[in-house]
From TrEMBL:
This is Ribosomal silencing factor RsfS. It comes from the Bacteria. Keywords: Cytoplasm, Repressor, Translation regulation. Pfam families: RsfS. Interacts with ribosomal protein uL14 (rplN). GO terms for cellular component: cytoplasm. Functions as a ribosomal silencing factor. Interacts with ribosomal protein uL14 (rplN), blocking formation of intersubunit bridge B8. Prevents association of the 30S and 50S ribosomal subunits and the formation of functional ribosomes, thus repressing translation. GO terms for molecular function: ribosomal large subunit binding. The keyword Glycosyltransferase does not apply. InterPro entries: Iojap/RsfS/C7orf30, NT_sf. It comes from Bifidobacterium canis. NCBIfam families: rsfS_iojap_ybeB.
Length: 134
């Protein structure tokens, strides 16, 4: 299994953890061709600070347990819990309060990138989001 496939598998674990904690609008993009810093960006929304923190903790726990002790290289935003960034090197997870996600609109940065199938029942599709915006 190559590095990208390993990252996809890890991001799917993270997405399942976020989904289990009632994270919303979970989406991931293959940004490897556009960015030199990582291969995948995942974004998940939460309705309040406590939920943002709970999702981040669940993602960290699951990746550690289910992916050979994987730990983030860095964690940012834990104090405020408005936007927590978990940097795993080959992929980055953004857990964002709904208002922060709406304001920063990270999806616009990667809308030209391929979306990764997270294998979640309710994962949004880029086409669905664009249709709703019209």
């Amino acid at each position: 299994m190559n590095t990208f496939e390993q990252s996809v598998n890890a991001v799917r674990i993270a997405a399942q953890a976020a989904d289990r904690m009632k994270g919303e609008n979970i989406i991931a993009y293959n940004v490897g061709d556009k960015l030199g810093i990582c291969d995948i960006m995942m974004i998940v929304s939460a309705s309040n600070e406590r939920q943002v923190l709970a999702i981040a903790e669940e993602i960290e726990k699951d990746l550690h347990v289910k992916d050979h002790g994987l730990k983030p290289r860095s964690r940012e935003g834990v104090e405020e819990a408005q936007w927590i960034l978990l940097d795993y090197g080959d992929f980055i997870v953004h857990i964002m309060h709904d208002e922060a996600r709406d304001f920063y609109n990270l999806e616009r940065l990667w809308r030209d990138c391929d979306q990764i199938d997270l294998q979640l029942d309710q994962a949004p599709h880029a086409d669905d989001e664009q249709d709703g915006a019209e």
